[in-house]
């Protein structure tokens, strides 16, 4: 085993495999689990790492690939490894593991040592309430400091709120910013000096008999603000400016040279003043925020890293750190190293350096990553660190993994050909082990075409239909796009085209931004304010012609907020899962006035009820995932312009300079120009990295939808093509159930597998949702499964759900549950059993709820209630997931799972084998 190793692992090359092999090899060589500090970037990755190590240890000797590499790494024979297996498995299972996210590790340190920084150990971690914090900060300022703030805002034309975005950026850097005392009056003095030469240029052009009208217009200015916007001042000489060529001579060249020098001085003073005043205000804010956080007993995520760095660099030594953490780390493993921030590395650096100190003890350092997958620079990720650690620590060796275990040959070769031809972009060709695969670059003239906005995603719908007809299971298809807005728009479009197609989305979008919810909110605001703005918003969202009138009888004065939302959605026929979630969330509002003025602040996330189905997600969410078939969409909207006020220049990983961005300054400051060029190169690499991540998610088939103009794929010079043949899914698609009712007529999705009952058609209606919730609630409230308990629970149901359900509905619930408590099989299963209702289950990082969990005679029974007649596949998938989880957690084969279909005529128990 190489003691100090960096692994460059391209997408699909087995990075997790390598980490697992490394960890188990360390255990075999005598390392204790708590001594192996293993750091990842997400909770999901940390959980998966722990589980992967555990499973590999359990099955050690059965998987030849793992065993072969562990033999190679550890130096032990197969017999010796299997001899040690039970011991290291037992040690790992019973140990306090040191497998953390970096954020959790940093947080753990602060919790242990917060007393040294005057912070209570029960502090909360949450986002800053900027509105409140900024108001309190204003109140804290002296009159002199308040004047400086106002002067800066006026001078820079900055809104007060936008200052805090700049402050946040400075917080992330964790640098000391010392303001210089630059007199603002010097700026005006220098402006006058510039104007002296500017007017000489103007006089020369006006007196030139050959001057064109365009030349005369170019010197049409009376003051500095008008002059400084002229494009000709950025030229190196007046002869470079076409309109001045006829008037150019040595005299004009001399004046122009002096003018350029004075403008250069002006920008130095101007930028220096802006930076100095900004740093002064930031230091005031930083000092106030520290006091505010301590008083409120909470910290922002950035605060934690800053405080831990301060702690480790000035307050405590490593030995005391280890003593308090109850673990001395002799081995460090870091995953996704390209996403590490400078501040995180500064915190880890002392621990890494100790391991690399060169003594002969058993210490190792291993990190793995891929700079091509660095797509989080905007969050502080510093991909340069990967090579910086190699350059500054010569003991660390480097290896490159170049075999792709994920994608088929045609996909791998397409990616190789696309990226290997790029100049100044580190790329190592990969070798595929699977043959075949399909790649298509499709030039989509509908995508991002304003004239075809209503059918922007028509070709995507057609392609999905074709893939399904060609044997690709819709559950195996993922659509990758750039933004959450794109995800929402594509989801809405496909739901209209394929009403019964199951679609899963990975979104962090707010509930209030979902199409139907937004429509309901605008409708209610229209009822309240009677302003056409909200009516036209509503028309636009639901696809009506402008000026369409609404004759909706909604009483907003005498009804509850929930009733208003319910009635509005019903009248507009907008009810879906998200509107239902809005109704539930509206219990927080006391009245309609609260709703109108507070709804826009609601942070609740969008509802995503589907656990299986065609997936739509952003490229950023797809990182680390893989899919059978990928539809990759171009950037639909142009990337937002960089509006940051500051430009940071680094020398390797060290902050070299900070510049205040001012229009045209690059023409007068060579250092700034070089820093700007560096930033542009980094931004281009960011775009290439996003494309690389996106194009390496597909295992079998990849279809790229490329815009005809201004395509992000132009960076790779991609042209229309089709390579190979579509690879079918292993399983037939059962994702859709009403294919013959698809609205999009040109598509033929085949015949449905079984008729759909009327009850199933209204499965997603508001009534069905509340009927199901009320039924579950009644069962949850029953202390025993007998008539007395049922009568009591039904009274609770009446009190809670009478606004949404009729008396006969509640009687129907009672009738169904009575069928269950009289069911002989059910009575026998729960007799003398201890049971928990609504049992929480955390498995593989996901929180699930089991309706009824019973234990009897060391046997475990899972019951899941359904109020539908149809026995759907997703019901079985869901409950089988519970069964698998309980079997693993309890280490038992005696786990039995049942779906209980609570129908009107019977309570039917279906056991899952």
From TrEMBL:
SUPFAM superfamilies: P-loop containing nucleoside triphosphate hydrolases, Restriction endonuclease-like. It comes from the Bacteria. Residues 1-408 form the UvrD-like helicase ATP-binding domain. PROSITE patterns: UVRD_HELICASE_ATP_BIND. Keywords: ATP-binding, Coiled coil, Helicase, Hydrolase, Isomerase, Nucleotide-binding. The keyword Metal-binding does not apply. This is DNA 3'-5' helicase. It comes from Arcobacter arenosus.
């Amino acid at each position: 085993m190489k003691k100090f190793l960096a692994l460059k692992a391209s997408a699909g090359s087995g990075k997790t495999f390598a980490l697992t092999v490394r960890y188990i090899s360390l255990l075999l060589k005598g390392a204790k689990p708590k001594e192996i500090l293993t750091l990842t970037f997400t909770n999901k990755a940390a959980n998966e790492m722990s589980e992967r190590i555990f499973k590999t240890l359990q099955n050690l000797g059965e998987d030849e690939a793992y065993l072969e590499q562990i033999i190679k790494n550890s130096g032990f024979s197969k017999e010796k490894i299997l001899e040690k297996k039970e011991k290291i498995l037992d040690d790992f299972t019973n140990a306090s593991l040191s497998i953390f996210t970096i954020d959790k590790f940093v947080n753990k340190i602060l919790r242990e040592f917060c007393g040294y920084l005057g912070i209570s150990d029960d502090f909360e971690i949450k986002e800053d309430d900027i509105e409140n914090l900024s108001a309190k900060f204003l109140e804290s300022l002296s009159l002199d400091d308040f004047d400086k703030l106002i002067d800066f805002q006026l001078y820079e034309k900055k809104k007060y709120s936008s200052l805090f975005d700049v402050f946040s950026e400075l917080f992330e850097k964790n640098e000391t910013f010392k303001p210089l005392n630059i007199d603002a009056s010097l700026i005006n003095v220098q402006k006058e000096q510039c104007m002296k030469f500017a007017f000489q240029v103007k006089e020369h052009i006006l007196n030139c008999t050959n001057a064109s009208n365009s030349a005369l217009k170019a010197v049409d200015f009376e003051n500095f603000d008008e002059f400084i916007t002229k494009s000709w001042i950025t030229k190196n000489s007046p002869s470079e400016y076409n309109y001045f060529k006829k008037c150019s001579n040595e005299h004009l060249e001399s004046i122009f040279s002096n003018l350029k020098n004075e403008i250069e001085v002006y920008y130095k003073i101007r930028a220096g003043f802006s930076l100095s005043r900004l740093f002064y205000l930031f230091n005031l804010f930083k000092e106030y925020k520290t006091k505010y956080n301590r008083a409120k007993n909470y910290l922002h995520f950035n605060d934690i890293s800053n405080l831990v760095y301060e702690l480790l660099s000035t307050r405590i030594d490593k030995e005391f750190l280890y003593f308090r953490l109850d673990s001395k780390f002799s081995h460090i493993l870091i995953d996704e190293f390209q996403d590490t921030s400078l501040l995180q590395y500064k915190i880890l650096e002392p621990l890494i350096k100790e391991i690399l100190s060169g003594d002969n003890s058993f210490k190792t350092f291993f990190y793995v990553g891929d700079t091509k997958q660095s797509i989080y620079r905007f969050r502080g990720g510093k991909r340069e660190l990967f090579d910086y650690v190699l350059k500054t620590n010569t003991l660390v060796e480097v290896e490159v993994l170049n075999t792709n275990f994920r994608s088929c040959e045609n996909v791998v070769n397409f990616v190789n050909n696309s990226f290997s031809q790029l100049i100044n972009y580190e790329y190592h060709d990969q070798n595929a082990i699977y043959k075949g695969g399909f790649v298509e670059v499709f030039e989509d003239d509908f995508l991002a075409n304003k004239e075809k906005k209503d059918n922007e995603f028509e070709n995507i719908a057609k392609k999905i239909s074709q893939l399904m007809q060609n044997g690709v299971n819709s559950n195996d298809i993922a659509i990758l796009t750039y933004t959450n807005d794109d995800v929402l728009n594509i989801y809405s479009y496909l739901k209209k085209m394929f009403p019964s197609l199951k679609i899963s989305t990975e979104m962090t979008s707010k509930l209030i931004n979902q199409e139907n919810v937004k429509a309901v909110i605008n409708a209610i605001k229209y009822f309240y304010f009677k302003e056409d703005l909200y009516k036209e918003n509503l028309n636009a969202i639901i696809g009506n012609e402008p000026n369409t009138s609404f004759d909706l009888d909604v009483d907003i004065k005498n009804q509850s907020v929930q009733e208003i939302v319910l009635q509005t959605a019903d009248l507009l026929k907008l009810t879906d899962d998200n509107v239902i979630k809005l109704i539930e969330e509206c219990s927080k509002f006391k009245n309609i006035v609260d709703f109108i003025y507070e709804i826009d602040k609601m942070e609740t996330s969008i509802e995503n009820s589907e656990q299986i189905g065609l997936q739509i997600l952003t490229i950023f969410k797809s990182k680390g995932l893989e899919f059978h078939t990928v539809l990759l969409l171009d950037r639909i909207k142009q990337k937002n312009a960089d509006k940051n006020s500051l430009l940071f220049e680094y020398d390797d990983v060290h902050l070299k300079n900070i510049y205040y961005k001012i229009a045209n300054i690059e023409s007068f400051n060579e250092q700034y120009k070089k820093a700007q060029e560096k930033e542009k190169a980094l931004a281009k690499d960011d775009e290439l990295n996003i494309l690389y991540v996106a194009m390496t998610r597909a295992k079998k088939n990849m279809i790229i939808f490329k815009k005809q103009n201004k395509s992000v794929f132009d960076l790779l010079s991609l042209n229309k093509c089709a390579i190979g043949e579509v690879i079918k899914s292993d399983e037939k698609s059962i994702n859709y159930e009403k294919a013959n009712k698809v609205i999009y007529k040109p598509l033929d999705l085949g015949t449905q597998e079984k008729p759909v009952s009327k009850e199933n058609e209204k499965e997603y209606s508001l009534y069905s949702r509340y009927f199901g919730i009320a039924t579950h609630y009644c069962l949850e409230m029953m202390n025993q499964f007998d008539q007395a308990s049922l009568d009591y629970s039904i009274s609770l149901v009446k009190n809670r759900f009478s606004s949404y359900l009729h008396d006969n509905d509640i009687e129907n619930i009672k009738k169904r549950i009575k069928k269950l408590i009289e069911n002989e099989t059910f009575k026998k299963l729960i007799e003398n059993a201890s049971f928990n209702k609504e049992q929480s289950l955390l498995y593989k990082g996901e929180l699930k709820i089991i309706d009824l969990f019973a234990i009897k005679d060391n046997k475990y029974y899972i019951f899941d209630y359904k109020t539908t007649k149809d026995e759907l596949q997703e019901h079985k998938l869901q409950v089988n997931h519970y069964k698998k989880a309980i079997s693993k957690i309890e280490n038992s084969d005696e786990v039995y799972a049942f779906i209980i279909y609570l129908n009107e005529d019977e309570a039917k128990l279906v056991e899952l084998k």
